Amino acid sequence: MKLDFNDLLIIPKDVSHINTRGVIDPYINGKLPLITAPMDTVLSETNIALFMQNKIEICQPRCLNVEYGFRSYSIQQMKNLYVSKQLKNNKYLIDVANGHMDGVLHLTRQIKKNHPDLILMVGNIANPETYRILSEAGADYIRVGIGNGGGCLTTQNTGVGYPMASLIKECYDISTTLKKPAYIVADGGMKDYSDIIKALALGADYVMLGSILNKSLESAGNNFLWKKIKVSQSVAEWAYKRGIPVYKMFRGMSTKEVQRKWGAEVIKTSEGVVRYRKVEYTLPQWTENFEHYLRSAMSYTGAHNLNEFIGRVNLIQITDNAYKRFNK
Predict the structure, then answer these.
(1) Which of 69, 198, 207, 266 has its CA 20 to 30 A from that of 51?
(2) CB–CB of 202/315 below 8 Å?
(3) DSSP H or E run through 268
(4) How far are the Cα atoms of 141, 142, 153 from residue 119, in angstroms, in the given order?
(5) What residues are labeled active site?
(6) CA–CA dist 313, 328 (Å, integer)
(7) What are the backbone dihedrals phi and psi of residue 150, each rounded to the nearest 5 degrees, phi first?
(8) Which of 4, 11, 16, 1 is nearest to 315 (CA)?
(9) Which residue range(s) make up the domain with 273?
(10) Torsion sign over Cα 127, 129, 135, 138
(11) Number of domains forming the structure of the chain
């Protein structure tokens, strides 16, 4: 039996020697353990600076090409960059829904063999053994999770997937046996702060966020009043400050409209979905809350930093009734 986040709780340490959260360091190289999903309803040229100011790592959607964070390309685009010798020592994502394809594996090996200093993220995958194989091929980051994201219908329509909590934990257990394990990037299906924190507790080095960030006022999604009237960002901000409901368009990156945007000659059956999500917070508000909740969880478990927290705390499996008791 495989588990998801709602099946688990983090156990406090029997005695924690942390008496103030101020001594806790919740950052990795000065950033929170968060990465933006490469989605055009999350990130754009106009809001990248705000995400960076809030200490969130950038992963660009394919429509962008700026000098920050990971640059996303399809497998064919990455092949073309590799063959034409245009790759630099930057951060890249091979952005593919099915990271189990042998083409991803072979390209990863080729790129890392000839560009060892280049930082490469690959995935998504939903098989712990694939995490081992891609790590050994040289991948620096691996996105784990298929079909869980708010904009993804893969598991619902194909039956392919792997419950996230077990997937993260099993990938983490494998990482402890490897000489140079890839960073685990938990991607998809985070509903709230506790899901993110549990993902880290289970062994994820980073958590990639799409829907949660889309629900911030500053996200790149188009703005609508009452899900019907499209308005500018300035009008949306004016309305939000006055308590008028504002909605953001949110779409998976495999939707047909995105395929058309990317210039696909053949439009495939969509495994993505378009939704409208109510704006619930500003990005600085959400980020501040997340940092406080992460510090709190780390204080309960006696972890002074993320190295002491990620994969190194105890969790227990709970019943549905136990979950319902605190899920108010």
Answers:
(1) 198
(2) yes
(3) none
(4) 8, 11, 29
(5) 152, 251
(6) 25
(7) -65, -20
(8) 11
(9) 223-278
(10) negative
(11) 2
Same domain, 248 and 134: no
Distance of alpha carbon 144 from alpha carbon 125, whole angstroms: 5
pTM here is 0.93
The pLDDT tens digits for 276-297 are: 999 999 999 999 999 999 999 9
Hey, what are 130's tokens?
Answer: 């694939």
Coil/strand/helix, residue 90: coil
| Residues 298, 295: Cα–Cα separation, whole Å | 5
Residue 95 lies in a domain: yes
Q: How far apart are the first and last CA of the chain?
A: 26
Q: Which tokens is 283 given? A: 């990005």
For 229-284, the pLDDT digits (tens) are 999 999 999 999 999 999 999 987 554 554 455 455 554 555 667 889 999 999 99
205 and 227, same domain (yes or no): no
Best CA proximity match to 227, nearest among 294, 276, 193, 262: 276
Assigned token pair, 274 = 């378009």
Q: Which residues contact 257 (CB under 8 A, 6 or more apart)?
A: 251, 274
Tokens of 323: 């979950």
What tens digit of pLDDT does each residue of 102-151 get? 999 999 999 999 999 999 999 899 999 999 999 999 999 999 999 887 67
Supply the CATH number for residue 144's domain: 3.20.20.70
